[in-house]
Design brief:
Length: about 475
């Protein structure tokens, strides 16, 4: 099955038109590739529930004809059509409205159109109007709030759903997601253990693994994911867990292992976009830049989301062929357009704004956005973004405590270590900078074509400086 769909091409064309208008109005804002790549594969993924498929799987069946399984993968559009047809006949089916709301949340994630969230909210509100306090709709609102980056709201809705149904898988998972994205990692781990007791399964296992990874326990994370993969029954589950394993191994610089897991995911579902994106990143990190470009071009044609758009732009820049700089700018412009559209869909894109402006835009704007995001939630990702925005504003001494906080949980992310090393270097802590940059490149030498190249250059300068002394 081809990953290039007609609908995806239309979305890219629309975004390009939007981006062209934005450029005429306020100039082109490029995106900090090294930072956003890390966030796109961690915080952004967890905020909407891993790769998003578990959001659909967790939805309770609305009717005998429309099941939660229909909301996964290629059946999503068919599920939405079936739900709408059913609701025309039975408009008072509150469960069907709740399931439709979740389907719209999932569709917004997969097609990169955040304006769909308004439809999701309308359906979920309709469900609650028909049956006030029903846990299916409350769990759906938790997923919607998380997708919009309203993590306090997601936590509130999840808790309300669990008060009605302590075994709601969607609510249990959304609660973990919200706590993670609020930086409350110890509580997130307790929530994951609670969810494991009540509803053990792939959605809970993968979240528990991510919480352990955030706390630096990669060994446990890997073991839990392998256990989840062994127990995965459906192709959707296999693709989801194998992709999570691929992402984990890629982050540790184990590219052949990552590619093996992505291949398994794609054998289960050859159109699984997170696996295709992960494979492209692993290809790039392992030196197959041409293969990475081809794969990412397929991905963005189907789903023009910030992560793959930025990754593709960075690969064009690194390749440096005729026209590649223009191609890179086009990808960054699409990211800028997506961010603006996300805001129209009620998505809090403050972190994206901070990351975009820090390297390639208005550093004052980047710093304002990063500070605002930090005020809302204290996570390793917001700490890293604030540190980098401060550094890019020339305030590297203020940046250093935040860079250290970003790595304080034990989370091993090469982009974070790269940022910390560059900030330490600017602050005159040359020995610490040498150690941070060395660790970043040893951990994941291909974490970003541009970032890794800058890290190697800085490390070489530090080594020569030391030798000169």
């Amino acid at each position: 099955m081809s990953v290039v769909g007609g609908g995806g091409g239309e979305r890219v064309v629309s975004l390009r038109r939007y981006a062209a208008t934005a450029r005429r109005g306020r100039g082109l804002h490029l995106v900090s590739c090294a930072v956003l790549l890390a966030v796109a594969m961690t915080a952004g993924a967890v905020a909407v529930g891993g790769d998003g498929r578990d959001t659909a799987r967790a939805a309770a069946p609305a009717t005998g004809a429309v099941t939660a399984g229909m909301l996964a993968g290629d059946d999503l559009d068919a599920a939405i059509r079936s739900l709408r047809a059913h609701l025309r006949v039975q408009p008072k089916d509150f469960g069907a409205w709740a399931t439709l709301g979740l389907a719209h949340v999932e569709r917004a994630r997969t097609d990169g159109d955040p304006t769909r969230y308004a439809r999701a909210e309308e359906a979920l509100d309709r469900s609650l109007a028909l049956r006030p306090g029903n846990d299916q709709a409350l769990a759906g609102l938790a997923a919607l709030a998380a997708a919009r980056h309203d993590f306090p709201g997601a936590l509130e809705h999840a808790d309300r759903a669990l008060a009605q149904n302590p075994y709601s898988e969607r609510a249990l998972c959304s609660r973990i997601d919200a706590l993670v994205e609020l930086g409350r990692y110890e509580e997130a781990e307790r929530a994951a253990r609670t969810a494991d007791r009540r509803r053990p399964g792939v959605p809970v296992f993968t979240r528990y693994a991510y919480v352990r990874e955030l706390r630096g326990d990669v060994t446990t994370a890997r073991r839990v994911l392998h256990r989840a993969l062994d127990g995965a029954a459906s192709p959707a589950d296999v693709a989801y867990v194998a992709t999570a394993l691929g992402n984990l191994e890629r982050g540790q610089g184990r590219y052949p292992a990552a590619l093996h897991h992505y291949a398994r995911a794609l054998a289960a579902d050859d159109a699984h976009l997170p696996a295709l994106e992960g494979r492209a990143r692993a290809q790039a990190a392992g030196g197959d830049r041409a293969g990475a470009v081809r794969t990412l071009e397929q991905v963005v044609a189907r789903s023009p989301l910030p992560g793959p758009l930025v990754a593709l732009g960075e690969l064009y820049e690194a390749r440096g062929g005729p026209g590649d700089r223009v191609r890179a700018r086009e990808q960054y412009a699409l990211v800028d357009a997506w961010t603006a559209l996300a805001r129209t869909g009620g998505v809090d894109a403050g972190l994206d704004t901070a990351l975009a402006a820090a390297d390639h835009g208005d550093t004052a704007q980047a710093l304002r956005a990063a500070r605002a995001e930090w005020d809302r939630r204290h996570t390793v990702h917001t700490a890293d973004a604030l540190a980098w925005a401060l550094h890019r504003s020339g305030r590297y001494r203020e940046a250093l405590p935040y860079a250290r906080r970003a790595t304080a949980t034990g989370y091993r992310d090469a982009a974070f270590l790269y940022h910390r090393g560059m900030i330490e270097r600017a602050a005159g802590h040359h020995r610490a900078a040498h150690a941070s940059l060395t660790t970043a490149l040893e951990l994941n030498p291909g974490f970003s074509p541009l970032g890794a190249r800058a890290a190697r250059t800085a490390l070489k300068e530090l080594t020569e400086r030391k030798a000169a002394r």
